[in-house]
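seq:
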Amino acid sequence: MSQDTRHVTGQARMSQDFDALTELNQAGRMLDVTGLLNVPQPKMARRDLADRLRDALTALQAAHYIGEPLGLVLDLVLEDACRLHAGWHKGPTVGDNDALRLLDGTTCKPRRLLHYDAKPVLAVFTPQVERLGLHKGRRPVAQAIEYLRRRAIPLGLVTNGRQWRLLYVDADNQAWLEWQADRWLQGDHLTPAFELLRRLLAREHLEPQADGKPGRLLQAIALTPHARLRLRCILDAIVAALYGLDRDDFRWILRDCDHSLVGLSLKQAERSLDPKGFWRVDKGLDPELRHTVLSLVAFHDLLAHIAAHHGDRDAGIAAFSAQNHGEGWQLPDTLRLADHDLGHDDRALTAQPVASRLGPQWLDWQLAQTPEASWAECERHARAILGEVEFERRFGVGEPVAQAQEPTAVEATAPVNLLGERLQTDLFGKVVMASPARRGR
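struct:
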């Protein structure tokens, strides 16, 4: 395979991973595009992995997702697919010392523990519930989170065989991604969703690095809440400007997000609000700490930069992103909501602290990073985004070679309808026919 073909294939696969990430059930924004770029592609899977995975999932379904077949699927996914062969404590090696008495009086013990350098990195839990996170399935997830937090284990995997939920937990935050096992196969091929699971849980991405830094996956996740919120507000503001929204448009979209905690706690006030409105985002926080309100503040600052450049949107965005010595817009130290025509009570007239209440912007190991290491990391991201050919064309030596993007093996064999649209298939690649709509009586 030529270098150019590898470049095209790598770009297509990266795009598939981004699409797979956005399609997963998730909360807490564990990973974004920048974080995913920090986690390189793993080695290619064995050719028979899809067949073995189908056989294991079929046996698990026949056993009603309990017993030995679940253990076999865990072995196949974690050890064979993700190549996590060594470091496991499972079976009798998970002893009483690994059990923890929780606050509700129950005892929680993971089914498996992955250790590196004598420290647990990943705990696996297998509750026998129909659905994770819903009804009876909420309690085992909460118990797993408590276990991880109290034992200072950063990653957990909770699965009932159907759903596979990857948890990230630290002292103050939690986030998760969730895969559905019936979406791991399409025909005779592994889907991008399963390849993403292999990518995130690959051995080389969980192992701590020789210089003392955490594994690549934890580094990708390890944006502080402060830094994550700032980036999200910047993106919201720029996207709103690119869509041509003005101040009133954006305020209408995010209307009622500036109500105080007391105002939102009143039942009659909540009934008067749009039940699908964005006011529900971070409604348990003071208004000056909410993502929605800070996005409005960032957008107001962006509009001021655009106005200072005589309405030139691109120049305004460039200035907005280059302020503060190139760091871009920052979360304010204090925020007086009334200065932005926000707020509904006397509290809005007083400047409230913001940045100090959101914790540090950088982690200790990030502050210790040398300028050379930081630039090397930037180059790695650029190469991952552009590919080797385009990177060399822009920043090095070489001529660009245009290549048509070929469909992947999954796309080439996927069934389509008469309009060329892909049809929905089940675990075995068979087309799922839509149920006819019922007529009203």
